[in-house]
Target: Zinc-type alcohol dehydrogenase-like protein
Amino acid sequence: METMKAVGLFRYLPIEDKESLLDLEIEKPSPKGRDLLIKVKAISVNPVDTKVRKPKEKTEEIAKILGWDVAGIVEEVGSGSSLFKEGDEVYYAGSITRQGGNSEYHLVDEQLVGNKPSSLSFAEAAALPLTALTAWEGLFERLAIAKEGNRDKTILIIGAAGGVGSIAIQLAKWAGLKVIGTASRPDSVRWVKERGADYVINHHHSFLTQLKELDLDEVDYIFCLNQTGQHWENMSEAIKPQGKICSIYETNEKLNLFPLFQKSATFVWEFMFTRARFETPDMIEQHHILNAVAKLIDSKTIESTVNKVISPINAENIRKAHAELEAGTAIGKIVLEDF
Model:
């Protein structure tokens, strides 16, 4: 049996516990069907990693491997694969229902994989897939924003300094929108402005009051990337009649939809793993989106959102990255490279 290095867990523990993530040797998989076997060169961490790992009364007999952002090289293709060949450089987020990419080699359905931007290193590319897919689907599919002709349209991006926000600002500007991002610390405000936001407001204060100070009475679109319940009243006030709100942040709180009624306003969710989880007929759209993003990167229209690169990929370093995400202080993306 051929083995490989991986970082995984058997118990769901606080990140301070050294057993929350472990260095492991596990069996190297083989691709079948439309799967690709990827030699992993770099990964990045996302809030979903910490949510899956968070403490709960459950144990795993087979190690659970996290990690849903990978850049690497196609090592081997399954018999049903037609989109890639051995040696291709790729990037992708993969599927939440399968083992993640925190391992030397990783299996992924080719329909979820894109060609890595040729102008980026593996580390720079690993920062992009999950957040770029989330931002693209949220903006252009859920909010149904046109990719051009938005000169008079405004979008408010809540939590704009995070991974999704960092790429969503750039995509929204590419589409011609006026972008208002939210951030609350000097370093995050600076990051949001550097990504291209026209204005920055503080998400700890009234949105509408701050918008009026910018001579904006309301916004056409809101993309909520943080604490849906916490920001719901502010969003309901700030959205324009017939406007649209999209959130990626799940909540168990009951949301009062009535304020949206007279405005005929839309509220919609975006969950990047929907296509992979349910194997929807249009699953290959993620292949197309990643390739479109790669073209925007290589044409210098948008840029990678990596803000920190750590090496090597091991349990200790991934625990540090999880701790930073859980503290809520991360700006841009944290990437790890090389086993």
Observations:
- The chain has two domains: 3-128+274-337, 132-269.
- The domain at 132-269 is CATH 3.40.50.720 (Rossmann fold).
- The two ends are 20 Å apart (CA to CA).
